[in-house]
Each structure stands twice: as structure tokens, then as C-alpha cells.
Amino acid sequence: MSRPFVRFTAVLVLAVAASAQGRGGPTVDAPRPRLVVLCSIDQLADWVWQAARPHFGKDGGFARLLGNGAYFPQCAYEHACSETGPGHATIGTGAPAAGHGIVRNAWWSPADGRAVYCVEEPMAALPELKEGKDRGPGRLLLPTLGDGVKAHVPGAKVVSVSWKDRAAILMAGRSADIVCWFEATTGNLVTNTAWVDKTPGWIVDFNEKRAIDGFHGWVWDRFGPPDAYAGLVDDRPYEVPHQNGSNQRTLPQPVTGGKPEPGGAFYTQVYVSPVGNTMVRLAGEAAVRGNGLGSDDVPDLLCISFSSVDIVGHTFGPDSVEARDTLLRLDRELATFFAFLDREVGADRWAVFVTADHGVGPTPEWAKAHGVDAGRGLLQTQARAAAEKALTEQFGAPPEGKRWITHVGEFSLFFDQAVLESKQGALDAATMHRQASRIAAAAAAGTKGFAAAFATSDLLETDPLGDPLRIALRKALCPGRAGDVQLVVKPYWLDGVIPASHGTPHPYDREVVAFAMGPGVPAGVRFAAPITPGFGTVLFAEMLGIPKPPGAVDTLPAGLFRMR
Q1: Which of 27, 197, 367, 425 has its CA 20 to 30 A from that of 243?
Q2: Domains (ranges, CATH) in the chain?
Q3: pLDDT digit string (tens) for 438-457?
């Protein structure tokens, strides 16, 4: 098996980090930061970062984080639902999905008879930004760090920026001063009345300047030296072609959307390119200036999420030339952004926690070529068919025009409760549900590409007894938002035709990067203590002298710092 699949565990712990075993560290006399930054890099799995690490610039953002900050090589999500919505909600609240309630990007709602989006909420648009309507944090069940900052630091400002709406919204929460994201239909940076009654002047100015349109015709070519792409193949038949009409899967490619002028197709291609990250960085800088973040001694919070790493990974695969190039360019974007914060806030007056909302698996074809059992197919459809057959054999056919399972998706099966009731006979409802769940799970687990399947009631009601898989699944279950059966795909198997994805409880999806840098954080140190990507909420709460969010599960390793 190739090295990227192996969890990096050879951890050198310096003396200041020896406190992971209980020894205290020295007191650090550090000023309270004027600005703290929660930074997410969408889809940056630990194994992907490790593979790219030798090729990052010596003056890049990652080199600065490693040299001037603390590195946490044992960062992983507790929950199994490794998706954007759940991950950003954890980064913002410090809690796993079972606590904050964002169990998937979207989940089936039996009451609504449809899937509901994780940041779907009736919300009026602003007159200038009509595309920003009906988004909000209403489905989030726990307060965020941003909510705590607004409650406990008078005069503090909380701002969030991302390309994705769910990333920006779920990191920051309801109390933020402004939450904004990009809309690919127009290329605008948008928000709505969940946070403001009027479009802030800085957003109006940002959209009017149309920096995004200036990239029309920009040619995406390789940024790094040849050895940065060694071993990567730039033309694989299962990749999605670049979205400019060329029908090609190689670099260089012009970013035009296949149109002579900027428009929806161009903005979509911007998102599926490194330019998407550049636009988030520019929006972050505009947000800092426009809101005066870090301009006085009252600390502020900025949440920022770089989304294009994710969509590039989905489109071409994390083991592609395009994905590697996007990371190399992001390394430079981070360096540029950090230098901007030095100038605007002061080099020793801001702090950052960098992590990711989830990881990613390699393309199954790449994994198979490297000797791994891997594959793809319509796995969940086949699991549903097997479960339907088994339930019919046990209880008889469902009523005409009905099916046992009303929905399958996001690795869950949902029963038609009316069908269960019609077939329970002398069984009570709870017994019927339990039996049906176990029968469906056993049938689904025996189908192609699945490692296991569990009745949700068994996961919730039975002590997992130290079983990592069951624990991760349980941490992803929120009553009322969980299906009746939970499916676990085999490692390196993929449901569907997309080149690569995530969403499983496997290590490559849950293990992500984590770095901290700022006043009081020791420089050049690696901490062996395991953390979750919600660690930043606890770190910054300590820095700011406020209570950590009530759902946060992390603790600070002794010796990380002691603020005075």
C-alpha cells in the first residue's frame, strides 16, 4: 500500500509538548489577540497533505504554520458523516454531528417527504442579492464559538466568508455580524437578512469591482516544478473534463466556462479551479478591511473556508495533477493572506487555527492500480434492492404501489412507516421496527461494496464497547435526522460515478490537518495528543478568556500555552 494511505504516526514531541503525558509547560506572557481566525480547507485529508508536503514552498503558508506554530498530526473527526456540512458545524461548535445536529449536507425528512438541506431556512433576500435567499443556521442545534464571542466580548465582531454557503454559515452561526458566500450563477458575494437588514457597503463595493471577472481567460497551468507532479497522471478517463468546452482533462486550460464573456458557466469553472480559492482570499481581505477586524484591542473572529480544494478533488480526484496544483497554489494563497493579516492587524496580534471539514478517498481506479481492493458502482441502489427482497421474504410483499424503503441516500435506508404498520401483525411497533431494521441491515451488508450495515436503533441503544466503527457511527446519529439502517461502504469503494468522494467513517475521510499559530502558541512544535477539528473553538475560547462552546469535546493539552 502506498505511503499516502498510512496514517502519519512517527510524531516527534518536543519538550514543551511532553505535557501530553501530564507535565506542565512554561507560562507564556502573550497579549490577547486582536483577531482569531478559524480557517477550513475543504477536503484536505491528512494523506493528501502528506503526499504534497515535500513540494510546498519554503516561504509558503504551510511552512509558516509548521515553523511558527503548533502542528497536530493526530486530528480526526469523531463522527462518521465526513461531509462539508457536518465538518464545518464541528469546526464552529466543537461538537460531533450527534450533538450539533448537522448529520449530512442534506438528510431525508420523513415529515417533509423530501431531503432537507443543512442550511435551508426561509429567509428574505436583500434587494441587491436576491440569489442569497432562504439560507440560515436554523438547523444547527448548538451554539458556535462565534455565538460565544458575541455573548461574552462586548463590541466584538464575527464575520464568516466561504465559497460555499453551508461552510460560511455553519462555522459562524446565528449571532455573526455578517456571513457571506459566493453564488456561481452571478459570481456575487452574497448574504441575506438572517444577519443584516441592508447589504454592507464593503460587499457592494466588492461585487461592483468584479475582481472575479478579471480572471476570465486566465490559463490554469502547472504552478510547481516538475517533481511536484511526479507519479501523477494528467489524463485519466474517469476524470471529469474541464468545464470550458474543450472536453480535455489535462493542463493547461483556459478558465472561460466556454463563453466569450463572464457568466454562470465561467463562475462555475472558477469554482472548479484554484481561482475559487483566490476569490475567497480576496473576500476575506475585503471582510477584514470592511469590518475593521482586528483594528482595536477588542478581539474579533473571522471564519474563512477555502472550498475549491474540495470540488477539484471531486472532479479530478485527489490523486490528480489538478488537485496537487490546487494545493500548491493554496499554499501561496495562505502565505499571502497571513502577510495581509500581519500588515492589517499586526504580526503578533492575530491567531489562526487551520483544519479541514473532512478528508477524501482516492479514486478507486488509482487505489486498485496500487494493489488495494477498490471499486465503484450503484452500491446504495443495490443495497436497497437486497433489503427490499429480504423484507418481502420475511413479512410478505408491501401493499400495491408501495415499497418497504421510501428513501436511500447518504448511506442510510429510511422505511415507509405505513408499510411497517401494515405488516406488523401481532408484533408491537417497536419489535417490528427492530426486526425489520436488522433484516434490512443484514441483507444490505451482503451486497457488493459494503463492509457492514447496522440497525440504527442498535447503534443508539447498545454500548459500542470500544468498537471504533460503531462509535463513529453513533457520533453521527441525531434522533429525528437518522435513517433506520446505516450502511458502511468498504474502504476505497465508491458509490456512483464521480471520480472521488468522502462521507464514510474510514480514516482517509476522518483524518485531517490541524495547525495553530498565534500569541502564546509555541513555535515549531508537534503535539501528539489526539484532537478533533473542533479544537479551534477551545483554543480560541482560552485565548479570549471566554467559556468554550457547550458542545465542545476537546481539551487543551497541557503545555500548549498559558495566557496571562
Answers
A1: 367
A2: 10-363+510-544 (3.40.720.10), 375-495 (3.30.1360.150)
A3: 999 999 999 999 999 999 99
